[in-house]
Structure formats: C-alpha cells, structure tokens
Amino acid sequence: MKSDDCIIAVEDEIAELFEMTRRAERSYLRTLYRNRAHYSLNQNDGIEHDVIFVAMSPCEIYERKATFEELYAAIATLPELQAKRLYAHYFLDMSKSEIARAEGVSTKAVCRSIQYGLKSLEQILKEYQLL
C-alpha cells in the first residue's frame, strides 16, 4: 500500500461487484493471450497497414495500368465538355455544384452532362471488351 492510498469501506455487494469486474477483466486478458489476439490497431506496429495495403503482383499492376489506359482513352472520345466534367467530378473530386459554379451553369446541367457521359462511357468500354 502506498503512502497516498486511502481505504474506503464499501458495502459487501459493491465489493463483490468490483471483484467480479476484476475477474472478468483477467479472464478476458487470458483469452486474448491464449488466442494470440493481443494485437492493437493503435500499436503502430504496421499490422493494419499490411492488412489494408497488400502488395500487388506485376500481373495485377499491368492489368490496372491497362484498365486505366482504356478508361482514359474512352474519356478522350467523349465530347470535350462531358469529358472535362467527368474528369473534374471523379478524378479531381469536385462536387457537381462546384463544377457548375466554375462554369457558370446550373447544377442540373452538370448532373445531366455527367449522367450522359457515364452512359456513353459505359457503351465505349463495352466495345473495348468485345474487341
């Protein structure tokens, strides 16, 4: 017992509740240890990074590059305004209202343009897959 500790008398029911909580916590810690589940995402030991960011194989890297090239080529075939709006919304992460403000048009016009652009893009990409 430390010199600054103090003893407080409590009822038996409360003391038993404290003891049950202490036992439950010890049991929980033993279970964690036995199941080798004693890792914490707050530990900064890189476990969560390894789980989330799995290294890609060279084949996967090539496939991703080819897919992006097809996507950029398909966007390039769209009318210039649709391509710019799609690029601004999906690649530059601009909201439709921000695009509308920058172009001085209504948000509805931008929404319609993006919607038509996506439909056209879908058709173009389907043709790429057939070739």
UniProtKB/TrEMBL annotation:
GO MF terms held by the record: DNA binding; sigma factor activity
Domain of life: Bacteria
BP terms from Gene Ontology: DNA-templated transcription initiation
UniProt cross-references to Pfam families, sorted A to Z: Sigma70_r4_2 (PF08281)
Residues in RNA polymerase sigma factor 70 region 4 type domain copies: 69-120
Entries under InterPro entries matching the protein: RNA_pol_sigma70_r4_t2, RNA_pol_sigma_r3/r4-like, WH-like_DNA-bd_sf
Protein name listed in UniProt: RNA polymerase sigma-70 factor, ECF subfamily
Source organism per UniProt: Acidaminobacter hydrogenoformans DSM 2784
